[in-house]
């Protein structure tokens, strides 16, 4: 069947440029034939990780819901802002909670990391920081990443990228990523025969 991809906008705020970027990636992936589950991190409400809470109550609903959505996909996309040149606490907290589930759902999943920021770096340093916990958990983080600088003026009204060269570059990144995930899925199928 078609590839299933979870596309997550990781910023909490309503007017998030990362939510817009996630929606654009989702449209590109749908056009490329994938089945997309577009979501936002704020749908998965969870407290700050606390080992006592885990011991007495187990995992919070939000973490289990995120686990379920991850388990139903072949790959995921994270569109995350950069806070102080690193991963937003909300994102790291979600990764920490979900990493406690067995089987650990990040393992062997393919991931594409993208970011948007009003700054000129486009949040790229945050993505490099995000690679550390994900790669530690066994996620196959795609080598190429996409960061949208000046994101506050980066979108047209219909949600495309204002710069056509960047629009093409994002399309190419998304397509190449899907091709890799597809090739890997076929390889795994062959091995299982
Ligand atoms: C930021 N922002 C930011 N931007 C950036 O490019 N590099 C950075 O290091 C930081 N640091 C930072 C720290 C904190 C605490 C906040 C709240 C913000 C700005 C950030 O990129 C901006 O708020 C984006 O608009 C967030 O993405 P969304 O919410 O538009 O998706």
The CATH superfamily is Flavodoxin domain
Looking at how many chains there are and whether they match, the oligomeric state comes to: single chain
What CATH architecture would you give? Answer: 3-Layer(aba) Sandwich
Mean pLDDT: 96
Features:
alpha/beta; 6 helices; six-stranded parallel beta sheet; binds ligand FNR; Rossmann fold; 193 residues; single chain; NAD(P)H-dep_reductase
Walk me through the topology.
Layout: E1 4-9, H1 17-31, E2 35-40, H2 51-57, H3 61-71, E3 75-79, H4 89-98, E4 110-116, H5 124-136, E5 140-141, E6 146-148, H6 164-192
Parallel strand pairs: 1-2, 1-3, 3-4, 4-5, 4-6
Ligand FNR binds at residues 11, 13, 16-18, 81-85, 116-119, 121, 123.
Description of the molecule:
The protein is of the alpha/beta class and 193 residues long. The protein has a single domain, classed as Rossmann fold, CATH 3.40.50.360. The protein contains six helices and six strands, in the order βαβααβαβαββα. Strands 1, 2, 3, 4, 5 and 6 form a six-stranded parallel sheet that branches. β4, α5 and β5 form a beta-alpha-beta unit. The chain starts with a strand and ends with a helix. 38% of the residues are buried. Bound molecules: ligand FNR. The site of ligand FNR has 16 residues, from α1.
């Amino acid at each position: 069947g078609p590839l299933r991809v979870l596309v997550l906008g990781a910023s909490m705020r309503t007017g998030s440029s990362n939510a817009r970027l996630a929606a654009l990636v989702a449209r590109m992936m749908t056009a490329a034939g994938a089945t997309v589950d577009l979501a936002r991190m704020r749908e998965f409400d969870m407290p700050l990780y606390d080992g006592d809470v885990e011991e007495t109550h187990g995992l919070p609903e939000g973490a289990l819901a995120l686990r379920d959505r991850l388990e139903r996909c072949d790959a995921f996309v994270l569109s995350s802002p950069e806070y102080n040149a690193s991963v937003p606490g909300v994102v790291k907290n979600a990764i920490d909670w979900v990493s406690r589930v067995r089987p650990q759902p990040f393992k062997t999943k393919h991931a594409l990391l993208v970011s948007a920021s009003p700054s000129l770096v486009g949040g790229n340093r945050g993505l490099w920081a995000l690679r550390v916990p994900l790669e530690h958990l066994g996620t196959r983080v795609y080598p190429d990443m996409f960061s949208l600088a000046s994101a506050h003026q980066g979108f047209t009204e219909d949600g495309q990228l204002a710069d056509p060269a960047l629009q093409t570059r994002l399309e190419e990144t998304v397509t190449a990523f899907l091709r890799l995930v597809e090739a890997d899925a076929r390889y795994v199928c062959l091995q299982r025969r």
